[in-house]
């Protein structure tokens, strides 16, 4: 009988032996202080916590939850959970008490690790009475047992713990733009094959032996970061992971890490660009970049200022990114490529490269991924990272797959003969105007998001004479919107933008007006998901009473 393929846990155990002194994780402690964890150190802590978890007598495969921002002990705790024979349930650190309670009760969690958090006093009420808790280092003030206390008194779990390919490694609760979170069941085989495929992809670009650095700051509770940072680095073993301390220190965190590999989401790529524009107007920067020698110097200075001057490969995922934004980053010398994936395939689906990329396309299938389009244009995926099903929801499983095992993504797309895939919209987001034709909002939103004054956009208009757009202004503009001169400038720019966008879309997709959002959309006010995608229905509901008045006025630009 052949030896089973290795799991992520097997990879980590191999690094413990082969790369014992390599610094894998670097955690900021505040005031410029950091602590480094070598493979030997972190695996020793994980083994001690695993022994403690086994000693508590939980049934094999019990769900152990982690509520924490990204930190070194998120990964160490996950390794401990796996060594002990259990399943990880990670909860987004920005979730409300209501959602925290739902996830803990729905998953039947046996224990909760509480880590680095900003809103623990508001979340604590969501933890069921009697659920055991352990505080990770950097946790808010609490009165429950601490990680350091446990490992100080517990001998390490010996030997080489193994997990079967079909064992459940993690339950990933989708953040979702609507509805109740769904528990996506991910086996060890799925997350490991995804991590190995990503390692093959990234190592093919940056070289097999070069040590790499990454900054982990997108939520580890989300599939994108879990696969492309944690799973990849657990497989790779020679990539150092740095963690961000806080939003306020993000630039310093980047400067400290000087990543060679960097992934982000479209909203943050836009914010980085707008931060540059706040210091130098786009037109002036454009002129400087056109000058051969000076342009290269300016581009290098921008990359250095962002902390991205040593990046060999940068990626964008989780949501569509404007093609113009990718072109801008490449113009300043950053190799930015878009990819495509989702929780249900462990974010292992499509990736762009120097050989296979085009504006507006998300790349070609990654190794082992099969893809086809349904007669309706829906993208169907069969991935080595494919999930097992939805936890306690067999009714959803029946609709999720085709008869031959392809996952129905719900995304609509087009494919070129060379395999490049273009996302044209999401089936559930399509809406009809009074003209009777379906409008796909995402491509129009991308046109709007490419404008330097706009950070995020939403296109809506169900049953209206035509669609409309609501936009959130760039961060550096928002505090100054009471200034009459600035308002006039913004009004003129958005009126021109409206005309430009309407020239680029079909007549039935043309926008009636642009509305400037009254308040920023954020995770905290529930208008963005934890991965910073817009919660479409909540934003539409918030302005529902005003829409008819806006249409009736006939104005092209409104201030909500």
TrEMBL record:
The UniProt record lists the keyword ATP-binding: yes
Signal peptide, first to last residue: none
A Pfam cross-reference name: AMP-binding_C_3
Boundaries of every AMP-dependent synthetase/ligase domain copy: 24-391
Keywords assigned by UniProt, alphabetized: ATP-binding, Nucleotide-binding
Keyword Nucleotide-binding: yes
Enzymatic reactions: a long-chain fatty acid + ATP + CoA = a long-chain fatty acyl-CoA + AMP + diphosphate
Highest taxon of the lineage: Bacteria
InterPro entries: AMP-bd_C_sf (IPR045851), AMP-binding (IPR020459), AMP-binding_CS (IPR020845), AMP-dep_synth/lig_dom (IPR000873), ANL_N_sf (IPR042099)
Protein name as annotated: AMP-binding protein
Organism (species): Sphaerotilus microaerophilus
Lineage, broadest ranks: Bacteria, Pseudomonadati, Pseudomonadota, Betaproteobacteria, Burkholderiales
């Amino acid at each position: 009988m052949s030896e089973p393929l290795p799991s992520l846990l097997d990879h980590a155990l191999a690094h413990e032996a082969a790369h014992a002194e390599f610094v894998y994780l670097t955690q900021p402690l505040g005031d410029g202080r950091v602590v480094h964890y070598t493979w030997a150190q972190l695996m020793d802590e994980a083994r001690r916590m695993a022994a403690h978890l086994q000693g508590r007598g939980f049934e094999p495969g019990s769900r152990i939850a982690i509520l924490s921002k990204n930190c070194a002990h998120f990964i160490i705790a996950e390794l401990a959970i796996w060594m002990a024979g259990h399943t990880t349930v990670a909860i987004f650190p920005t979730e409300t008490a209501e959602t925290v309670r739902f996830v803990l009760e729905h998953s039947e969690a046996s224990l909760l690790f509480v880590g680095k958090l900003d809103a623990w006093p508001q979340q604590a009420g969501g933890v069921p009475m009697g659920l055991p808790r352990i505080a990770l280092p950097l946790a808010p003030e609490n009165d429950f047992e601490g990680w350091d206390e446990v490992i100080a008194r517990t001998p390490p779990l010996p030997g080489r713990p193994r997990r079967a390919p079909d064992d459940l490694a993690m339950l990933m609760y989708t953040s979702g733009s609507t509805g109740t979170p769904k528990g996506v069941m991910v086996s060890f085989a799925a997350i490991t094959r995804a991590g190995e495929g990503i390692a093959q992809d990234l190592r093919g670009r940056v070289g097999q032996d070069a040590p790499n650095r990454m900054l982990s700051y997108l939520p580890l509770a989300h599939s994108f970061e879990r696969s492309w940072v944690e799973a990849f680095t657990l497989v790779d073993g020679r990539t150092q992971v740095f963690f961000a301390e806080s939003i306020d220190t993000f630039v310093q965190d980047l400067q400290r890490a000087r990543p060679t590999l960097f992934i982000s989401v479209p909203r943050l790529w836009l914010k980085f660009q707008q931060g540059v524009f706040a210091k130098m107007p786009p037109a002036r920067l454009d002129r400087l970049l056109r000058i051969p020698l000076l342009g290269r110097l300016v581009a290098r200075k921008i990359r250095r200022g962002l902390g991205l001057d040593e990046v060999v490969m940068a990626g964008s995922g989780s949501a569509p990114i404007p093609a113009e934004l990718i072109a801008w980053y490449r113009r300043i010398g950053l190799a930015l490529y878009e990819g495509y994936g989702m929780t249900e395939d462990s974010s292992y689906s499509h990736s762009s490269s120097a050989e296979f990329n085009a504006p507006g396309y998300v790349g070609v299938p990654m190794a082992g991924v099969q893809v086809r389009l349904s007669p309706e244009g829906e993208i169907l995926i069969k991935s080595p990272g494919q999930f097992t099903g939805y936890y306690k929801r067999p009714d959803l499983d029946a609709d999720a797959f085709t008869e031959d095992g392809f996952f129905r993504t719900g995304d609509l797309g087009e494919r070129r003969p060379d395999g490049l895939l273009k996302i044209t919209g999401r089936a559930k987001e399509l809406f009809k105007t009074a003209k009777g034709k379906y409008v796909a909002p995402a491509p129009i939103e991308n046109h709007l998001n490419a404008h330097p004054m706009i950070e995020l956009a939403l296109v809506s208009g169900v049953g209206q004479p035509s669609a409309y757009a609501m936009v959130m202004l760039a961060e550096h503009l928002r505090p100054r919107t009471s200034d009459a001169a600035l308002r006039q400038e913004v009004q003129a720019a958005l009126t021109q933008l409206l005309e430009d966008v309407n020239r680029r879309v079909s007549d039935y997709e043309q926008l009636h007006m642009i509305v400037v959002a009254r308040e920023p959309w954020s995770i905290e006010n529930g208008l963005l998901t934890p991965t910073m995608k817009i919660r479409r229905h909540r934003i539409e509901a918030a302005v529902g009473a005003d829409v008819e008045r806006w249409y009736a006025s006939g104005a092209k630009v409104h201030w909500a």
